[in-house]
Amino acid sequence: MVIPLDGLEYHPSGGPDDRHGGPAVVAKSAPLWVRVRKNHWTTRLIALAAFLVVWWILTTPWAWNGDKPIMLPLYLPSIPSVWNAFIRANTIHPIAEGVDREVVGEYGYYLWQHLLATLQRIGIGLFFAIVIGLPLGLLMASVKIISVSVEPYINFLRSLPPLGYIGLLIVWFGIDNTSKIWLLFLAAFPPITIATIAGVSGIKEDQIHAAQSLGASRLQVVSSVTVPAIAPDLITGIRVALGFAWTTVVAAELNNGIPGIGGLAYLSGTELKTPLTITCIIVIGITAIVLDSIIKAMERVLTPWRGKA
Amino acid sequence: MSRDKSLVVDGVRQFFGPKNSRVQALSRTDLVIEPGQFVCLAGPSGCGKTTLLRLIAGFINPSEGQITVSGSEIIGPGPDRGVVFQSPTLYPWMDVASNVELGLKFQGVSKDQRRADSERYLQMVGLTDFAHRRTYELSGGMQQRCQIARVLASDPEFILMDEPFGALDALTRERLQNELLDIWRKTGKTILFITHSVDEAVFLGSRVLVMSPRPGKIVFDEPAIFSKPGESIAAEEIRSLPAFLELRERVRSSIQHSH
Ligand SMILES: Nc1ncnc2c1ncn2[C@@H]1O[C@H](COP(=O)(O)OP(=O)(O)OP(=O)(O)O)[C@@H](O)[C@H]1O
Ligand SMILES: [Mg+2]
């Protein structure tokens, strides 16, 4: 699951932020310790620097250690070697030092192509999760028999770790993309369905009544009241689903996952290309944060009334 | 007056809650509201005024008895009965103007016509400058006015209003009272108007009802002569009429004695 980002939010306006309990506006000239106290970005930058310093200390050869780093490169590669792996993965380069043959990126694809392949799988899986999960949720919220009979299966499915049933999906749909998309779909649709049901049960009765008194037909009630009223919950559901799909995708790409960022992380690990593995991990993590921020931004733009009415 | 188009509350009782611990909100109520009446309903808090309004609106079905309009039973909400809710019920995903236009939109009125109508009613309730704001940007009283504009724009036969002016300052309240009277005089709509203000009830109504505390029962039902369709007397003039003061006093004491 994507880490909830409520604590990591960037406030470009720098306005007062009640959630963090303090003004974010701090004069540039203020002493560092004041800025640390008042500005979360300063704090974060310092924390990042400290992290990099520790990494550097652990991976630099030291004379007192017999010119060896504290941690062997196999376990923790140095910062430059990770950077090199990142560059290598994005360029055409010789297959090995002193060899003439040149190859593209890693395993025949640039890093961004691996990432794109994974994003595509997630996109398709999430698309079907919404297309199926939303109407199913609406149906379950309005037809008792359906909700009573379907809900246990959704809860069952939700409780399964995707690694548990990937094998079965491979048997059913083959080792290629289809089984991976199925896996992502199955991981992503229960949160969306459940969020939809929660959204419908949270609609104020009088909002429906008001529309009916204004002459709304059944369909008009759904389009003018139900759907917009559940939008905030639905977006939250999509956010949870995306986070879950993102962590699931590595499992999906364990088998035949090239191109794919999860497949690349796994394969490079098994081949002891640790710098590349760490590069992948960083890319996976940053992508998750970026995706989550995108959904949060959508939330602000699409449902500005959230929490206000 | 023709009885066919009347709204008839016939032997209605209302209970809430599960069978073993049910609460009676309305004791047996019979009421006929003739077309064109401006019925004001007063009574202490919690006596069942809103319950009666919701029954007529079709939001709840009576536990006993039935309610009919023009002879046919009310089985649900409908565009013939517009409702101004006690607490504003607007849609935060639409701007103020779209909220006001919604009824017309449901009826299939063209966009231009809708715009024109909503502008007229927004002007009436003094929200022209807020037409394109979101509803949660309005104050409580402004939301209430927006709700009133929404119902008036959709042009129902019956207007059911639950303490519509309760949240307004005296001046705005007086202006909207006069606007409502104007609309009523011009259109001859049937209005059920719940209020806590005895003065407002006697001033606006062509008929004043008082309900006793729970279980609610109509204990006072008299015509008020002060605002008739077709004539408009200045508000101060009405309020200084001896007959007005006398009726106001009797309504007040009937509310007090119903406790
Ligand atoms: N949905 C409900 N479930 C249970 N009890 C209800 C419900 N609606 C109303 N009641 C009860 O019925 C009684 C009458 O309520 P109602 O809302 O009609 O009062 P009211 O006259 O409108 O009061 P107020 O002037 O405070 O708005 C109250 O005792 C209330 O608790
Ligand atoms: Mg009430």
TrEMBL record, chain A:
Localization (cell): Cell membrane
Membrane disposition: Multi-pass membrane protein
UniProt keyword RNA-binding, yes or no: no
GO cellular component annotations of the record: plasma membrane
SUPFAM superfamilies: MetI-like
Record carries keyword Heme: no
Annotated Pfam families: BPD_transp_1
UniProt record, GO biological process: cellular response to sulfur starvation; transmembrane transport
Main location: membrane
Chain segments annotated as transmembrane: 45-64, 122-143, 155-175, 181-200, 276-295
UniProt xrefs under PANTHER family: ALKANE SULFONATE ABC TRANSPORTER-RELATED, MEMBRANE SUBUNIT (PTHR30151), TAURINE TRANSPORT SYSTEM PERMEASE PROTEIN TAUC (PTHR30151:SF25)
UniProt protein name: Unannotated protein
TrEMBL record, chain B:
GO molecular function, one term: ATP hydrolysis activity
UniProt keywords, alphabetically: ATP-binding, Cell inner membrane, Cell membrane, Membrane, Nucleotide-binding, Translocase, Transport
Gene3D superfamilies: P-loop containing nucleotide triphosphate hydrolases
One Pfam family in the UniProt entry: ABC_tran
Domain ABC transporter span(s) in chain numbering: 7-238
CDD domains xrefs: ABC_NrtD_SsuB_transporters
SUPFAM superfamilies found in the cross-reference section: P-loop containing nucleoside triphosphate hydrolases
Annotated protein name in UniProt: Unannotated protein
UniProt source species: freshwater metagenome
